[in-house]
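Job type: complex structure
Entries:
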Amino acid sequence: DAKTTQPPSMDCAEGRAANLPCNHSTISGNEYVYWYRQIHSQGPQYIIHGLKNNETNEMASLIITEDRKSSTLILPHATLRDTAVYYCIVRVSISGSRLTFGEGTQLTVNP
Amino acid sequence: ETGVTQTPRHLVMGMTNKKSLKCEQHLGHNAMYWYKQSAKKPLELMFVYNFKEQTENNSVPSRFSPECPNSSHLFLHLHTLQPEDSALYLCASSVRDGSYNEQFFGPGTRLTVL
């Protein structure tokens, strides 16, 4: 599975959009981009995933560049409850493929 | 609520004790996972079960013994643990192993080994 690079920490003002970047320059054509988040001392929570096209759901939007070497997770109106560690993971969709969690980005939403 | 429950939520045990962690999923999934998260470290995959069969053991010491009696239940039996085994133990499930579907995580069991 391709390796990802994320900034260790980011801050965002409450009510503003939070844009979390992820670099995955060695991603293969059959690898999906997943985003999870983990609020302190809780289990990780799935947010969104995509392959090529931009995706949006009730939690967030995922923007994948045309060359697929990077992506951005967008939380359109961040709240204090969005403070968490956000993980960007790439993996293929086949048996034996693993979710490999890295260090992630600690997002702190400030009042 | 993710549909994955874990008990107990907190556990303190001595190095000579035997205890078990329980995970139950109410999602109709066929794959279940144990992860370990030590302080200030990324999540580490420990075991994978797919349709009740263990398909991965990620070089986990034998003092951790998993059991999957059916697709809805997963146990982690603990014996003669070490203080460095203190961590948050997370259970997860998915439709099947390796699918593009997301994994649903339980709240975890915070284990302290004295």
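Summary: The mean pLDDT of chain A is 93. Chain A touches chain B through 21 residues (CB under 8 Å).
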